[in-house]
């Protein structure tokens, strides 16, 4: 081995020298080709593409996106709230602030537990007011005159009242009023000098009122009746009645006759002096039709003035009661008392249980009341504006919402109306004090939030607000001014939506889900508003929503087209202008599939159809106008010039093709089964000529790129992978991909021309691939991978080898282009037009297959060259394997061989593509198969154990190359003829002689059965004739009886066209029946259908050996020469009655056996047996065959 070391060193040095020369050449070529500084910054692939001015990429690279609106209102946030320096605006701002503080200071009703300072602090933060101004405005709010508190009562109904009349019913009516608080009552009583007690004791306990019949004394507030009645003739009361009226503004309801479940639905309002102490009280009485009633007396209560009027009122009330004593029927039906401080700020509606006035009263049932508090302001300089409370509520909602959004830091569109507890409390109090109903509050919310559209308020949130407003609205619920305010709001929202619809193609980015959702919600909210009865009331006599949308879409398409024309105007090159126009329209059409589902969800409008029809009409009018232009370089002249075959007008040609691609893309957006105006234009011939011209130029450009890519070839490293590649394969694959991508976009109007160009395209692509492969392999040979390779190869050369075959494999993969060529579709169009069978498709597919085969062969040849350098080493390992001691395990004997194979595979498995790695395995298998076969051929007739060892070794190697499914698949092994032949040969050689003989006869029996099946199925004729026999086995005498009846259609073997047939009968295999004689029938002369009718007996045991059968050989007798073989047939003993389950003994069964001739499929068995010279049984079998055949 020592003398070989200098040679290896010299080889490595030579290879390294060639690499240095190649690097110098590369540097020089790169310096010459790219002398400009900016080009030096480009990588290799970009330099190749830039070499021809991006000839291919200019058609496929996406055009710059149209700049969309930078303002996405859905992402706006509020950083700071401020007002301008306008004094009037500042004054309005401060007035609103005072209103908020005034609302807090004068809270009414039972509300949240938030303290007043906390609410004031929230208002200060929401309005962003400093402490000084806050204190000043707070003092101003406190100085304002407090509001007048009002108690609102809605008397709805009662149920289960007690019956007072003899008819089993009552005629109920109610009396209600406000009972003053204890402090004020005591003060009044003290001043009057009376000693009457408070209605409620110090613990607040109340006593039910007495009947008007009762003469019992009671103090002023002892009961509701006592609050305004005194004992008749009382002087004390006469002294005090001018100073205070015990119960203010007592009111009565209407009478509901003959019912125990009255329904009133009446409303009352009372002025409250002190919410914290005053109480609401209500009595229910039974009305008496016959006498002057309490109800009649109460009707004049509000007109009482002074002592005289009040005394008359007491008298009327007293006389209204029925005449009688204490035993008389009481007209009292029950009463209800409630402290006003317990009334929730939101009001309450409930069933109240009626209470007794005394233990003797009979009371039952409940009354349903709705109570709520409100205020009426009488502040200084209060303007007489009915909408003041509404406007203030709107401004407060808006101010609080802006504050909440600012504090959250989230975009405005995220706001869903959720306000903090202080804001909710303040707005609730303001609604109460302003007596704003739920409808008014919903209206205020809509007016407040709809005015925030421009800063990005969510339309989904607006939809919920509007839905609430519409659901609460009923006719006549709003006054004229309020309806006018809503009308202005609806009109403003209508105008905003129309404006948004007009500019949606420019302002709405379909790539942003949030903007699409916002547009969809806007349309949904707009539809809800337009189709609501409230909108119809405010803005009557409007056209339908779908009609307006349709009109807006048409108008917006027209305005968009005018905008496109204005920005694309180019007086010097009408072709470029046309391209820009169509390309911009395509961008708008590309958005149609995003907008169309939105419009279909909320309208019955086909957005895509309306938009495309308008664009089609406008574009057709524009093109007609340009084509009829009389300018020097008009559109028609330029297009005709560009499509001419002669002349150097590449730039104009490219522009024409861009127009073609843009027009083709525009056609893709049309809907099927529709007629369009652009269909009438005839540009096909101009574009076809331009495409033909471009194909010629593209071929030259492509080959130029391949040449440059090979010159600038450099190693590239794919991230997270050790697979070797060079930059040139990227360029070549990119060229092929670009070529096909451009071809897919081209639409050749002439079908015949397109078929020709398709064939021309495929030829060009294949030539490019083949040219590149030749260049790559030539460069690899230059680098040292050539001639007879030595066993040792430097790792650098291995890497170059891997890169080369990987590059070729990548290019081969890029040639899978059948789908991109749409051959089936083109073939159908071609044959439909020409009415003849097309051959070009077959030629195209053949060209691709031929190119693929060529590339595979080049890869396999290169890999085979790498693998064959180890033939000598592998042959030595196979020899040592074959002659290793039998005591040595097969795996141990194989280890040197597998180590060599594994070392070779390990050197390349990380740097090769998987397909190429498997090819290396294939190459090793293809080397080992002849070596194993040679070992068998050189050592014939040895003991079966020798071949069994080789068989096991090859099985181990098969698993080695299979590699658990990562290498050569087992199915692939079965497709390798040499592998199948080797396995078969080893399997035969390792079998014993008797097993080979048995298998030989089994194969012949199987061939006979197949021939019989073919004759039965009329697949083929009986070629050699039929032998008719009968047979059975007598188990008692252990005798096989065979009756040879005759034969039919025996082949003629004599010159006279006949034969002299006879039959030889023997039991086979002879090794299993060595003592059984060979029998013959008589000779039937000159016959092709002989009748023998002879019986033969064979004494054999009932146990049938493996493969046991009767062998019939039909021979032609010849006096002068040896007998001729006419055919043979086999009868399986298992089919003979008497053996096993074949049938009952002593029963002859006829068998019609098809005569056959032995085929070459058994030649391998015969050869193996013939090679066993020392095996007597094998040689006897061979002699038997030679005699028979």
From TrEMBL:
Its main location: cytoplasm. Residues 130-321, 1023-1148 form the C2 domain. It comes from Steinernema hermaphroditum. CDD domains: C2A_Munc13-like, C2B_Munc13-like. GO terms for biological process: exocytosis. InterPro entries: C2_dom, C2_domain_sf, Munc13_1, Munc13_dom-2, UNC-13_domain. It is found in: Cytoplasm; Late endosome. This is C2 domain-containing protein. Keywords: Cytoplasm, Endosome, Exocytosis. Residues 657-776 form the MHD1 domain. One of its GO terms (cellular component) is late endosome. It holds the Pfam family C2. Belongs to the unc-13 family.
């Amino acid at each position: 081995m020592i003398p070989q070391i200098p040679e290896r060193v010299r080889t490595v040095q030579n290879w390294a020298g060639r690499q240095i020369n190649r690097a110098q050449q590369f540097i020089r070529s790169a310096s010459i080709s790219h002398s400009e500084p900016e080009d030096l910054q480009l990588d290799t692939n970009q330099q190749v593409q830039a070499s021809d001015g991006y000839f291919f990429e200019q058609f496929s690279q996406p055009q710059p996106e149209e700049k969309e609106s930078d303002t996405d209102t859905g992402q706006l946030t509020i950083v700071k709230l401020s007002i301008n320096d306008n004094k009037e605006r500042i004054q309005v701002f401060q007035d609103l602030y005072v209103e908020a503080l005034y609302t807090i200071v004068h809270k009414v009703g039972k509300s949240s537990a938030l303290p007043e300072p906390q609410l004031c602090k929230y208002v200060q933060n929401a309005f962003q007011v400093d402490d000084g101004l806050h204190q000043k405005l707070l003092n101003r709010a406190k100085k304002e005159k407090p509001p007048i508190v009002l108690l609102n009562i809605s008397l709805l109904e009662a149920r289960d009242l007690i019956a007072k009349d003899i008819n089993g019913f009552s005629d109920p009516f109610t009396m209600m009023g406000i009972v003053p608080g204890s402090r004020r009552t005591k003060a009044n009583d003290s001043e009057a000098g009376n000693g009457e007690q408070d209605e409620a004791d110090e613990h607040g306990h109340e006593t039910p009122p007495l009947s008007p019949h009762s003469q019992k004394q009671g103090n002023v507030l002892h009961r509701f009746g006592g609050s305004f009645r005194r004992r008749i003739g009382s002087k004390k009361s006469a002294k005090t009645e001018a100073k205070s009226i015990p119960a203010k503004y007592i009111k009565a309801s209407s009478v509901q006759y003959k019912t125990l479940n009255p329904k009133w639905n009446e409303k009352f309002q009372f002025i409250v002096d002190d919410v914290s102490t005053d109480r609401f009280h209500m009595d229910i009485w039974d009305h008496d039709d016959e006498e002057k009633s309490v109800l009649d007396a109460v009707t004049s209560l509000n007109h009482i003035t002074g002592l005289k009027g009040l005394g008359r009122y007491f008298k009327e009330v007293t006389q209204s009661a029925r005449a009688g004593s204490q035993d008389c029927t009481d007209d009292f039906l029950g009463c209800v008392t409630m402290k006003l401080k317990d009334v929730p700020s939101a009001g309450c509606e409930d069933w109240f249980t009626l209470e007794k006035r005394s233990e003797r009263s009979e009371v039952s049932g409940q009354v349903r009341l709705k109570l709520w508090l409100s205020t009426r302001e009488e502040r200084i300089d209060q303007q007489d504006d009915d909408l003041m409370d509404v406007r203030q509520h709107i401004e407060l909602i808006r101010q609080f919402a802006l504050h909440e959004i600012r504090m959250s830091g989230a975009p405005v569109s995220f706001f869903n109306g959720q306000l903090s507890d202080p804001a909710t409390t303040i707005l609730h109090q303001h609604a109460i004090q302003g007596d704003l109903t739920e409808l008014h509050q919903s209206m205020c919310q809509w007016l407040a939030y709809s005015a925030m559209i421009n800063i990005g308020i969510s339309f989904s949130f607006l939809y919920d607000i509007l839905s609430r407003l519409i659901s609460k609205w009923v006719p006549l619920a709003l006054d004229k001014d309020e309806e006018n305010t809503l009308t202005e709001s609806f009109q403003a929202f209508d105008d905003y939506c129309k404006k948004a619809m007009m500019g949606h193609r420019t302002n709405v980015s379909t790539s942003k889900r949030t903007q699409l959702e916002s547009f969809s919600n806007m349309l949904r909210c707009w539809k809800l508003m337009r189709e609501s009865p409230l909108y119809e009331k405010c803005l009557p006599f409007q056209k339908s929503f779908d009609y307006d949308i349709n009109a807006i879409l048409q108008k917006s398409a027209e305005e968009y087209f005018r905008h496109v024309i204005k920005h694309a105007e180019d007086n010097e090159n009408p072709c470029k202008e046309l391209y820009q126009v169509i390309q911009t329209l395509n961008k708008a059409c590309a958005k149609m599939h995003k907008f169309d589902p939105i419009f279909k969800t909320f309208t019955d409008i086909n957005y895509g159809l309306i938009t495309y029809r308008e664009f089609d009409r406008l574009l057709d009018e524009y093109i007609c106008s340009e084509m009829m232009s009389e300018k020097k370089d008009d559109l028609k002249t330029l297009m005709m010039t560009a499509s001419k075959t002669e002349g150097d007008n590449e730039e104009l040609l490219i522009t024409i093709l861009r127009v073609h691609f843009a027009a083709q893309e525009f056609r893709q957006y049309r809907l099927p089964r529709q007629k369009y105006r652009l269909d009438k234009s005839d540009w096909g011939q101009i574009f076809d000529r331009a495409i033909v011209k471009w194909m010629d130029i593209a071929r030259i450009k492509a080959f130029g790129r391949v040449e440059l890519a090979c010159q600038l070839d450099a190693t590239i490293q794919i991230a997270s992978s050790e697979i070797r590649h060079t930059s040139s394969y990227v360029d070549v694959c990119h060229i092929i991909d670009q070529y096909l991508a451009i071809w897919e976009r081209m639409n050749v109007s002439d079908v015949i021309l397109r078929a020709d160009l398709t064939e021309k395209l495929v030829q060009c692509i294949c030539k490019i691939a083949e040219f590149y492969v030749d260049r790559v392999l030539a460069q690899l040979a230059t680098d040292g991978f050539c001639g007879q390779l030595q066993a040792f190869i430097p790792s650098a050369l291995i890497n170059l080898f891997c890169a080369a075959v990987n590059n070729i494999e990548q290019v081969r993969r890029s040639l899978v282009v059948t789908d991109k060529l749409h051959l089936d579709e083109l073939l159908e169009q071609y044959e439909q037009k020409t009415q003849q069978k097309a051959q070009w498709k077959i030629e195209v597919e053949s060209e691709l297959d031929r190119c693929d085969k060529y590339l595979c062969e080049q890869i396999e040849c290169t890999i085979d060259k790498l693998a064959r350098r180890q033939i000598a080493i592998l042959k030595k390992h196979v020899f040592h394997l074959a002659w290793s001691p039998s005591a040595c395990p097969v795996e141990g004997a194989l280890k040197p061989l597998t180590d060599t194979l594994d070392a070779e595979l390990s050197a390349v498995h990380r740097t090769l593509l998987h397909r190429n790695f498997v090819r290396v395995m294939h190459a090793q298998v293809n080397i080992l198969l002849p070596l194993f076969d040679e070992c068998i051929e050189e050592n014939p007739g040895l003991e079966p154990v020798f071949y069994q060892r080789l068989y096991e070794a090859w099985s181990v190697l098969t698993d080695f190359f299979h590699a658990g499914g990562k290498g050569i698949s087992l199915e692939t092994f079965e497709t390798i003829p040499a592998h199948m032949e080797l396995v078969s040969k080893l399997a035969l050689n390792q079998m014993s002689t008797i097993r080979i003989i048995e298998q030989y006869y089994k194969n012949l029996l199987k061939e006979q059965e197949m021939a019989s099946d073919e004759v039965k199925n009329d697949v083929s004729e009986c070629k050699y004739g039929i032998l008719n026999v009968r047979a059975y086995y007598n188990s008692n005498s252990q005798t096989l009886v065979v009756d040879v009846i005759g034969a039919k259609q025996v082949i003629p073997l004599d010159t006279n066209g006949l034969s002299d047939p006879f039959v030889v009968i023997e039991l086979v295999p002879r090794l299993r029946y060595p003592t059984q004689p060979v029998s013959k029938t008589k000779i039937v002369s000159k016959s092709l259908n002989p009748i023998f009718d002879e019986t033969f007996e064979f004494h054999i045991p009932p146990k049938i050996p493996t493969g046991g059968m009767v062998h019939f050989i039909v021979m032609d007798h010849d006096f002068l020469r040896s007998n001729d073989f006419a055919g043979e047939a086999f009868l399986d003993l298992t089919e003979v009655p008497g053996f096993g389950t074949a049938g009952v003994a002593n029963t002859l069964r006829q068998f019609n056996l098809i005569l056959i001739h032995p085929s070459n499929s058994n030649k391998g068995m015969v050869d193996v047996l013939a090679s066993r010279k020392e095996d007597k049984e094998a040689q006897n079998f061979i002699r038997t065959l030679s005699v028979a055949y």
